[in-house]
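Two proteins, back to back. First:
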Amino acid sequence: MVQLKDIEKWVMSGGIRTFILRQINLEIEEGEFVTIMGPSGAGKSTLLYILGLLDTPSSGEYHFMETATHNLKEKQLTEIHRHHIGFVFQQYHLIDEMTVYENIEMPLLYQKIKSDERKGRVAEVLDRFNIVAKKDLFPSQLSGGQQQLVAIARAIIGEPKLILADEPTGNLNSEQGREIMELLKKLNRQGTTIVQVTHNEDQAKYGQRIVRLKDGWME
C-alpha cells in the first residue's frame, strides 16, 4: 500500500540544509498496524504528514496504492487525501463552532456525498461509537476522551484505506488512552491500515511492528 524510497526532508536556512528526514525506505502492507517511535525531534510527525500527503518530501519517491504521489500536483494530492486517508491528531482538531454531528459529517461534504447517504453514514458511526446522545453538543462540552472518539469517528466516516494517528492518546488519561487504542486495534482487525506515532511503549505494542527514528534516520 505504501512505499517510501530514499525519502528526505530538509529546510533551508542561510543557504544551509537542515535535515529532518534522511534516506527513509519503508513499506507498509495493506491491513498492517505500524507504530513510529523516537525521541522529540526525530522526524516522526514529519514522516506521518508526508504519509498523509499533508507535506511533501524534498527528495525521494512515495508510492501510495501504486500511485506515484511525488509526481502529482497539489490538487491531485488533496483528492487522494480526502478519499483514502483519515487523520487523528493529539489535539483533536475538531471545529469548535460545529456540533459533534457536523464535525463527523464534514469529510463527506468534501467528498460530495449526497445528503441521504451522509445522514445514514453519520447515524451509523454515531451508533457504532455510542455517541448518539452527544450529536448536538459542541466540542467544548465534551471530555478529552469523548473529543478523541469524535475525531476518530470523523477520520473513518469517509471509509479511508489508511488512518494516521499522531499521538492519539497524548492528552488522555490512561483509561481513556486504553479505550482509544482498543478502538484503533478493532478498526485494524476490520481491515483498516493504521500508522501511529507514540512515545508510549505500551501503546506501541498494539501495532504489529515498530519503526524507530533517530535524528531523521530509521534505526
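And the second protein:
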Amino acid sequence: MDLYKRALEEYGRPFPAEVPMRREVFVAPTRAEAIRRAQPYLEEKYKAYRSWGQDKVMPEGDDFDHSFDELLEDRFLLGSPTEVADQLIRLNGRLGVNHIVASIHWPGMPNSLALEQLHLLAEEVRPLLGVAG
C-alpha cells in the first residue's frame, strides 16, 4: 500500500474512494478445518505460480516462494465465518480495503466446494460485516 500511495502522490492523484483487493478465501467451521480443506488446492496453485517464475516479478517482500505455513501469515483469508469477517474488517481498517475480490475456486477443487464457499460468504460472512446485500 505504501508503494501505491507513493505512486499516487508522484502523479498527483487522490487516494480513491474504492479500494479493492483480491484474496484467496476459504470459510469452514474452524480455522484449522479451513486450512486443512484449502491447503491442497492452494499449495498446487502456488506451486504452479513458482514454476512459472511469477514470484520473481513481485515487489520486494511480496514474493511467495515460501512454505504454505509462511504464506498463511498474510496472504489468505481462512477461518470460520467470524474469523473471515474479522480479517476483512482488519483489512479495511489497516489499508482502507472496501471491496474484496474473493478467489474461492482453485485448480483441482470440485465445483461443489466452490459453490459452498459462495454460499458461506453470502449467508454467514457478509451479515457480520454490516453491509447491505
